[in-house]
Write a structure and sequence with these properties.
This protein has 430 residues and is mostly helical. The protein has 21 helices and no strands. It is found in: Cell membrane.
């Protein structure tokens, strides 16, 4: 049964194609078609499902493009050099401390100032030359960024974490398990602890020097540190972008109004608007299209019925608490890697996982932990997740960072494996 499961086969195919450096966009499309055909859909119907499903990530795709334009506008001013100068003063010349500081800063994007991936194209590209001088392995930085994008929402019930916890609480309630946010918080810290252990292991593993080429002159040689009118307008425009995003919970609206503010008040010269948009597109459009196609792939997986089949197999083959927990986690890993979002995985798995946990004798706390971690694993390591696409968009600004081998593989190994181990151990004892 598993050998013909469309979800299992298509997700494995996607990852294998990516590992062989096949184009990511085509890999996701082909995997979606395979899932549809294996489910009994004809080719035309499969493409219809895939295309209709793409609307699920339209907002995210538009967000990427507009935020890329904001980043391009910032890079066209002295703010880039000023940013480097200011951040350099708090970043250590010691590689490990440097990478851990990036992880610490990234954590703010999920909770304190919930801008998610918006900070990456602004913060990371200007720091690449500094990383090159220190010979920092960018795989460690990719792990630091992914940690900052995922660990806070997994372990803390504020910002995006509160959204994650509310979805988990709702789906548990839909299956007759009533819990509070405090109950969820009391166990989900275990996922964050697992990711922190993974981060430390990644930083130590990638501590050796890695050589990169500086493709541009140092910012200090090209720009001054003077704040002129244009710099102030762009800085305020960036604040408008993030402020509106936080107030309205709409990243595209924030990006659009921030850009308009910069244009109206002279932060972006009118005759350079096209150039700024072109630069933003070149930076982020490819990733935006990957997100669109990933949403379509997720729609095909949901329509295939293969997810429910996998969950049924887990129920039948569990054979005990440990085996059941392991199967639930592995299936959650497959589903999240396929659809690219932990938030979307919870409703898919909760309906079967809750009664399965009860039948196997897991406590309420262990049930929360298993479902929460089963949804979260796979966000790191998935080629279609913004938790990996975001770091790549910044680290590959000079074309020297591979999405699969420098972001997806390291984050998969150093975060998913510890989360599975921690979830298995703690689900047995709480």
């Amino acid at each position: 049964m598993l050998l013909t499961n469309p979800v299992l086969i298509s997700v494995c195919l996607m990852y294998i194609l990516c590992l062989f450096r096949f184009n990511i966009l085509l890999a996701i499309l082909l995997s979606g078609i395979v899932a549809g055909i294996m489910s009994g859909f004809n080719l035309i119907h499969t493409m219809e499902i895939l295309i209709n499903g793409m609307q699920g990530n339209l907002e995210t795709a538009l967000s990427y493009i507009l935020l890329g334009a904001v980043a391009a506008a910032i890079s066209g001013t002295n703010l880039t050099a000023i940013l480097i100068h200011k951040i350099s003063s708090i970043l250590s010349s010691k590689k490990i401390i440097f990478v851990l500081t990036i992880a610490f800063i990234a954590c703010f994007s999920q909770n304190l100032i919930p801008v998610h991936i918006a900070f990456i194209p602004v913060l990371i590209p200007p720091l690449l030359n500094i990383m090159n001088k220190l010979k920092i392995d960018r795989r460690a930085v990719a792990c630091a960024l992914t940690f900052g994008l995922q660990a806070p929402y997994v372990s803390l019930g504020v910002g995006f974490g509160l959204l994650f916890y509310n979805i988990l609480k709702k789906e548990l309630a839909n299956n007759s398990v009533i819990v509070s946010i405090a109950d969820i918080q009391s166990v989900m810290w275990i996922g964050g602890a697992a990711m922190f252990c993974g981060l430390i292991c990644a930083v130590l593993f990638y501590r050796k020097s890695r050589q990169y080429v500086n493709l541009e002159k140092s910012m200090d040689e090209t720009f001054s540190l003077h704040m002129g009118k244009k710099e102030w307008v762009v800085l305020i425009g960036a604040a408008v972008t993030f402020g509106i995003q936080i107030y309205t919970s709409s990243i595209p609206l924030g990006g659009l109004l921030g850009l308009l503010f910069m244009i109206v008040f002279g932060g972006i010269d009118y005759n350079k608007v096209q150039e700024v948009m072109d630069n933003g597109m070149s930076m982020m459009a490819y990733i935006a299209f990957i997100m669109l196609v990933a949403a379509g792939f997720g729609a095909v997986l949901r329509e295939s019925g293969g997810i429910n089949e996998l969950i049924s197999v887990a129920s039948a083959l569990s054979g005990g608490k440990f085996g059941g927990a392991l199967l639930m986690l592995l299936i959650g890993l497959l589903v999240t890697m396929g659809i690219g979002t932990s938030f979307g995985t919870i409703p898919i798995i909760a309906a079967i996982y809750v009664p399965l946990c009860i039948n196997l004798g897991f406590s309420v706390s262990a049930t929360i932990l298993l479902i929460g971690i089963a949804a979260a694993i796979g966000d790191a390591g998935s080629p279609a997740s913004d938790s990996t696409l975001g770091p790549t968009s910044g680290l590959n600004a000079d074309g020297q960072h591979d999405h699969i081998y420098d972001t997806c593989v390291p984050t998969f190994v150093f975060f998913n494996i510890p989360m599975i181990i921690f979830a298995l151990i703690f689900s047995m004892i709480i």
